[in-house]
Write a structure and sequence with these properties.
single chain; 201 residues; Peptide Deformylase; globular
Length: 201
């Protein structure tokens, strides 16, 4: 069983670093991936990128199963079908192409708790990546799968979902973002706040 790691909060310099490619010799990679899944599940997330746990490398994980859960009417969103088993590890990913008409969806982030904002992204992407067995993939993803990947991919490029907001929305969330950066937010998972030596539960 993995270890729960503290998640870097908004304002952390680590979240703005461009991740570096890694190779098979990266130390304790299997353990890191296991810890990342444990951390993500503890925080009820569907994705987690290495910069969020203090590692400036091009690695992120996804388990999109929560998107495939039926709503109160017992229905599953059309774009979420097939995601019940969508659990992936992405190493050295590169998005080659994004296309389609942009669509809006409310996104949140474990590094930016209590804030959800509409973000517009293309619905279809093509990307290359290595899996945990160092096998190379060249795949096309659509709908919610593409969106989760785009969100996590942003993290390994030092980009946050709030960067995609229109100027007015950005101004409206600035105060909340500042509160998060100094630890004035209630979360039920471990977080590491800029300028604080200890993480907060």
């Amino acid at each position: 069983m993995g270890r729960v790691l503290p998640i870097e909060a908004y304002g952390s310099k680590m979240l703005r670093k461009m991740g570096e490619d890694i190779d098979k010799n990266y130390p304790k990679l299997d353990e890191l991936i296991e810890n990342m899944f444990e951390t993500m599940y503890k925080a009820s997330g569907v994705g987690l990128a290495a910069p969020q746990i203090g590692k400036a490398i091009r690695l992120f994980i996804i388990d999109a199963a929560p998107f495939a859960e039926p709503n109160e009417e017992g229905e599953v969103d059309e774009m979420a079908k097939g995601l019940e088993d969508f659990k992936r590890i992405f190493i050295n990913a590169e998005i080659i192409e994004e296309d389609g008409e942009e669509w809006g969806f409310e996104e949140g982030c474990l590094s930016i708790p209590k804030i959800r904002e509409e973000v517009f992204r293309e619905p279809r992407i093509r990307m290359t990546y290595l899996d945990e067995n160092w096998k190379k993939h060249d795949e096309v993803f659509e709908g919610f799968a593409a969106r989760i990947i785009q969100h996590e991919y942003d993290h390994i490029d030092g980009v946050l979902f709030t960067d995609h907001l229109k100027p007015l929305r950005k101004r409206l969330v600035q105060r909340k973002l500042k509160e998060i950066s100094i630890g004035n937010v209630e979360v039920n998972y471990r977080m590491k706040f800029p300028g604080k030596s200890k993480s907060k539960r």
